[in-house]
């Protein structure tokens, strides 16, 4: 068993002052694979002090120096890629393909910020004034358990590029992955105090971070419920905010779509990352007149999704992250049945032959309407709700009839027409006939799906303040 009993403060791995311990249970088989010692409020205050002191010097570093650090972090992550993939599979339950993709994305996020940094105009002329972009200060980064290394990278890379110093608060449910990333950052040789990591209970760590006036920026990924609490707490010290929150994304199959392409893509959009994705296309909107055809296509394509031990070849869906997640998803499947939706694939319980670990049957509901809870609430598991629409205007109305607005999907043979439909959707990203991720394009949501944007130039500017010089 692995013991994770170090935090990272002021350039060193140190023993936490906190004494509470927690077992880390692998969703693959339900076994205890690690034990985490929690940091406490005093540890967090030490991290804030270290970051505050380091900011005095790091904020004055050159573009060349910061670019060098970004490259070194990339290189160190690549050296530990096998370790990261192993940890992501065992600790989280990601399939081999997903674990490799997500950790490679983390590495390349650091290297891609070099060109963003080098090309960014930190000074520019506007009318009679000089505009100077300065680092916002000490940033607290809160990252989730469903994309540990990727979420760390997408926040940490722009913060470092901007000249900020950082306190990283990763999810206490993914400490093994976070520890490896921190070891990579340590090996990259950044100045002491530039990056610090405290891992522990969210309520304990966040209290110190949110109350400290020295922390001037918050970047959080997680549920809308927690995001709202953080937003309220930030007001007292006027912290700058980037919030990447929940989603309930619509996937619109337009009448002219090729179902042989659109349906397998829709299933992938819904079941990606074992269904644990804020961007999951969990509402599939289909033309009412093609219900029978869509049903047949879904039944045919879903058979290609294999649930099983995530380290095995050919597995598309591994376990969900915890017993709590398993129970939540089972509750929602039961709610869908009670609401009168029809299960055409999957349903309650574990898949056959997978009695240990937290495995869920990928489940498809038909006969869903947008007022049902399974269509309105984020389930965060491999559950797809199929909703018929009578015409295109109704499809757009259904897609927008949600508190969320993170992602949307459209399938159509006419891309130009699909773009017109996309212009009417309230979503931060709309993918047309693709599931591609553009790591340099802004990412974030409308409505309750968040505030601000990550990635690329938009993500860099989220860690900067604007100063105007007039002479």
From TrEMBL:
<dbReference type="InterPro" id="IPR016161">
    <property type="entry name" value="Ald_DH/histidinol_DH"/>
</dbReference>
<dbReference type="InterPro" id="IPR016162">
    <property type="entry name" value="Ald_DH_N"/>
</dbReference>
<dbReference type="InterPro" id="IPR016163">
    <property type="entry name" value="Ald_DH_C"/>
</dbReference>
<protein>
    <recommendedName>
        <fullName>aldehyde dehydrogenase (NAD(+))</fullName>
        <ecNumber>1.2.1.3</ecNumber>
    </recommendedName>
</protein>
<keyword id="KW-0560">Oxidoreductase</keyword>
<dbReference type="InterPro" id="IPR029510">
    <property type="entry name" value="Ald_DH_CS_GLU"/>
</dbReference>
<dbReference type="InterPro" id="IPR015590">
    <property type="entry name" value="Aldehyde_DH_dom"/>
</dbReference>
<dbReference type="Pfam" id="PF00171">
    <property type="entry name" value="Aldedh"/>
</dbReference>
<feature type="active site">
    <location>
        <position position="244"/>
    </location>
</feature>
<dbReference type="GO" id="GO:0004029">
    <property type="term" value="F:aldehyde dehydrogenase (NAD+) activity"/>
</dbReference>
<dbReference type="InterPro" id="IPR016160">
    <property type="entry name" value="Ald_DH_CS_CYS"/>
</dbReference>
<comment type="similarity">
    <text>Belongs to the aldehyde dehydrogenase family.</text>
</comment>
<feature type="domain" description="Aldehyde dehydrogenase">
    <location>
        <begin position="14"/>
        <end position="468"/>
    </location>
</feature>
